[in-house]
Amino acid sequence: MTLEKLCEMGLIKDDTEIWIRRSEGMHDPRMVAHGNWYQDHMLDYMQNAVKSFTWQDNNTLVIDIT
Questions:
Q1: Pick from 17, 24, 32, 59: CA 20 to 30 A from residue 38's CA?
Q2: Are strands 50-56 and 17-23 parallel, antiparallel or unpaired?
Q3: Could you give all domains of the chain from N- to C-terminal order, each with its CATH number?
């Protein structure tokens, strides 16, 4: 699944705060982007495969990509 597919599912809204991490190792995730889905720097990651994600009640989504 890609970040684009998550958006299409309706899970991500315009006001959803997204944190994107790339796993550099089992215990070393590295933050690569933060913002809303429509911002240019976030659009760069729309085609990346999602390894896992966590949605929090405060409308925040943390996504681990491969």
A1: 24
A2: unpaired
A3: 3-65 (3.10.20)
